[in-house]
Amino acid sequence: MAFTADGAPRHADERWFLDSGAAMRAFHEKDAFRPDGTLREAPHQGLAKLGHALHDLDPVFEAFSRTEALAGVADAIGMRDPRLLQSMYIFKQARIGGEVQCHADHTYLWTEPRSVVGFWFAIDDATVANGCMWALPGGHRIPVKERWRLRDDGSGARMERLDSNPYPSEGFVPLEAPRGTLILLDGALPHRSGANDSDAPRHAYALHAIEGWTDYPADNWLRRPMEELRGFRA
């Protein structure tokens, strides 16, 4: 997910984005386009990500996402009824891969109580040079500061501020990860990634799981009934 300066997803008010929760859709990097709106490179070279139901709609992604090994990881971290809510293939293209500003996943995938966990897989080596993630150690203990939710009139989504104090700007550490690494992200953990100004891509695959026993509010942007969500076991 790419963000604007105010922390909202870049595609926040586009139906293409808001209706993608049960679809497979492509999103381009803003720097993939010339001022006249034409692509600078071949279409696939300007992609930012594919989302957000790859794990349900594509047999290759489903086979990767639903395994006994991943079910065992969810069991090991104490998830009781994990349901796969969202998946993204993130390209972080060489030279144009955009920055992702500091955020916590619970802000965008809200449950009551908080339950979302990110399962992030490095498809390429992720380094500081090509835009690896950075996270704040212990930051999951900080109350989440915002919630992104649908507007009451259905015209799009907005950011609801819960705490006016920003996340710390210091203390983040790079999560450099060799290809094949799985990184788990607590839903309250502040994390970000830099732009990819290098000549090396930083592809990744991300799954977000929530607990099936929690409340999933109707004003979440990603609108999927809890009863249609399935877990890690095929």
Keywords:
234 residues, mainly beta, Jelly Rolls, 6-stranded antiparallel β-sheet, 4-stranded antiparallel β-sheet, 12 strands, 10% helix, 26% strand, globular
Give me a quick take on this structure.
By secondary structure, the chain is mainly β. The chain has a single domain, classed as q2cbj1_9rhob like domain (Jelly Rolls), CATH 2.60.120. Helices cover 10% and strands 26% of the residues.
Number of strands: 12
Overall tally of domains: 1
- CATH superfamily annotation: q2cbj1_9rhob like domain
Task: Please give the alpha-carbon distance between the first and last residues.
Answer: 27 Å
Radius of gyration: 17 Å
Assigned CATH architecture = Sandwich
Q: What would you call the structural class?
A: mainly beta
Would you write up a description of this structure?
The structure is a single chain. With 234 residues, this protein is mainly β. The chain has one domain: q2cbj1_9rhob like domain (Jelly Rolls, Sandwich), CATH 2.60.120.620. The protein is built from four helices and twelve strands. The strands form three sheets. The chain has a six-stranded antiparallel sheet with strand order 1-2-3-12-5-10. A four-stranded antiparallel sheet has the order 4-11-6-9, with no helix packed on it. The chain has a two-stranded antiparallel sheet with strand order 7-8.
Topology:
Blueprint lengths: L14 H4 L5 E5 L18 E6 L1 H4 L1 H7 L2 H9 L5 E9 L9 E4 L13 E6 L10 E3 L10 E5 L6 E5 L11 E2 L7 E5 L4 E3 L10 E8 L23
Antiparallel strand pairs: 1-2, 2-3, 3-12, 4-11, 5-10, 5-12, 6-9, 6-11, 7-8
